[in-house]
Amino acid sequence: MLDTIGSPTAEAVLEDALRRQFKGKIALVSSFGTESAILLHMIAQIDQATPVIFLETGKLFPETLAYRDTLVARLGLTGVRSIRPSGAQLAAWDPDGRLWQRDVDLCCAIRKTNPLDGALEGFEAWITGRKRSQSGTRATIEMLESGPDGRMTVNPLAFWDDAQIEAYFTAHELPHHPLEAEGYTSIGCATCTLKPRPGEDKRSGRWAGLDKTECGIHMPRTQGSGLVFAGNGI
Ligand code: SF4
Predict the structure, then answer these.
(1) Closest-lying ligand 1 atom to the alpha carbon of residue 104
(2) Ligand 1 atom 4: residue of nearest CA
(3) If I label 155, which of 16, 123, 135, 204 is the partner at 20 to 30 A Cα–Cα?
(4) CA pair distance 58, 77, nearest whole angstrom
(5) Ligand 1: does its nearest atom lie under 6 Å from the Cβ of 141?
(6) Does residue 110 have its Cβ closer than 6 Å to ligand 1?
(7) How many CA atoms within 13 Å lie on the side-chain side of 142?
(8) What tens digit of pLDDT does each residue of 109-159 get?
(9) Under CATH, what is the fold of the domain 10-176?
C-alpha cells in the first residue's frame, strides 16, 4: 500500500520488515516518548511479542516509566526489554550520578549507546521513530537505511508530519505522554530535557544550550565502536 506521496505506508513497511525481510531478527527501539505510541501500536497489530528495546538510563522522568507501563498493558506488548547501563561502567565513570553535568557525550555512551549496542546484538535490523520533520540530522533520512555496522535501520515514519501523528493518536484513541500536557514536546532524560520556548522546534529542549542534538544512538558507528571502555575490561 502507498501513501499520498507514493511511498509505502508505515504499516506496510513494518509488516514487510517484521513478517518477511527481517523476520525474527528485528527489534523496535522505543523511548516511550511523546510520539512512541504510534509505532508501538502498529507493531502490536502485527505481533505483540515483537522485541522492544527501552533504554532505562536511570535518569528518566518517572512519568516516562509510568507511560511505558500504561502502553505495555494497553497494547498487550510482551517483548519489551528495559535495558539498564552497566553497573561497572557507572561505578567507574559516574559514581556520583553527575557525569551529565561534566561530559554529556560520555554520559550518553554509558547510559545509552553502549547498552543499546549490547541489546542489539543478534539483530539484523532495528526500527526507529525518527522523522524528517524533526529536522537537524534527521532531515534527509530514508525509510530504510544501512549502517556501517552492517545493521539495517527501518524508519517507517520518516515522512510523517505533525498532522499525521496527531491524526493517528486520535483515530486509535492512544494516550499521550503525561508530560506533553505540561509543554514537553521531545522527552529524554529528565536531567537533559527542557520544554521548548515558543517558536522553537520540538527537539530544542534536548541538551538545551549545548552543541549537542543527538544522544548518539542514531549516529553512524561501526559495530562495537560504542564500547569505549572495552579496552579497560569494563
Ligand atoms: S541524556 Fe543526559 S543524563 Fe541521559 S544519558 Fe545523555 S547526558 Fe546522560
Answers:
(1) 7
(2) 189
(3) 204
(4) 22
(5) no
(6) no
(7) 6
(8) 999 999 999 999 999 999 999 999 887 778 889 999 998 888 999 999 999
(9) Rossmann fold (3.40.50)
